[in-house]
């Protein structure tokens, strides 16, 4: 019989203790703390994410009812509701941002070069944002427009393993294109974006720094064609052109030659025009790059459906950012475990099983050994999940 740690304790072991201690010390997170250390705060928040708790009261009531089992989760005492609330409101949320970055680096090393369908020699990223609506009367600092409140979560995703390598949380009024100023461009890397990021000054800056971009063009783009390359119409391609921008503003902002690839999306009955500065790839490869942008859409949908980032446990900006970053840490722990143990279930199934098995004494292999878990995946083809591409 297995006599080791609980499932929850094994999940928390993914978090490097020494690195976490350095982060807490750097931010002085445990200064003047008598009860509920930063690690215990993190354990409580991860427990809430993994078990779908709706409030801090829900979290503390459940944890305090566990008695002896609570010790094996890493909690030495009962968790007072007010103490957890104060911790979320007052302790620096940047601690959990830094912890997420540590977990991201760990995950990227694990996933290595497992990038299906794209050039393995290149790093390929997808950039997008999602809006999280908030009630303005409860979150007055999150002013959006027309009496509504919202925040935005901007993410740059490494398509090797669906790993968010950059996350920035802003108020809802910040335009997506401004985030390009905060991203460190890696020479040779490919950045895939939707047309909300069209800004030729910023795109030319990416080009000068050695980065490559694949972005959807706006309908009112003015250009002249320098030459065309024959394309395979049966593969959904309409044209592959070298162009120059001709409006006085855009030709100043981007004076170099661009490539324009016109794709017919028969499934969704759409014409998609793609702009890129990649010269070596074929038109089919450029279209395949842009299609991979859907992975970041799946990421946003998945975390909104499976993690607690739409309903918040506290109303202050510090509490909201603490909850979002601990949710990101939870997501990173899950994909690290998913890869480390080569689990064949989807992240959605994994999350559902973990929510009712956290206090079981068994290994992950034993927990997900049941073949019915993979059978349910096959029978529910419409279920949204990552790693299903």
Q: Helix segment count?
A: 15
Oligomer: single chain
- The average pLDDT value, as a whole number, equals 89
User: Percent of residues in helical segments?
Assistant: 25-40%
What is the global morphology?
elongated
What is the H/E order? HHHHHHHEEEEHEEEHEEHHHHHH
How large a portion of the residues is in β-strands, by DSSP E?
Answer: 15-25%
Largest sheet: 9 strands, mixed
SS elements, strand count: 9
Widest sheet: strand ordering:
3-2-1-4-5-9-8-7-6
Give the low-confidence spans: 377-385
Give Rg in angstroms.
Answer: 23 Å
Distance between the first and last residues' Cα: 37 Å
Structural class: alpha+beta
Describe the 3D structure.
This protein is α+β, with helices and mostly antiparallel strands and 389 residues long. The protein has a domain at 7-95 and 312-379. The protein has 15 helices and 9 strands. It has a 9-stranded mixed beta sheet, sandwiched between helices. α3 (38-50) crosses α12 (317-340) and α7 runs parallel beside α12 (317-340). The longest helix has 24 residues, at 317-340. The protein is elongated, with a radius of gyration of 23 Å. GO terms for molecular function: DNA binding; transposase activity. This is IS4 family transposase. Residues 121-333 form the Transposase IS4-like domain. Keywords: DNA recombination, DNA-binding, Transposition.
Précis, in short:
The protein has 389 residues and is α+β, with helices and mostly antiparallel strands. 40% of the residues lie in helices and 18% in strands.
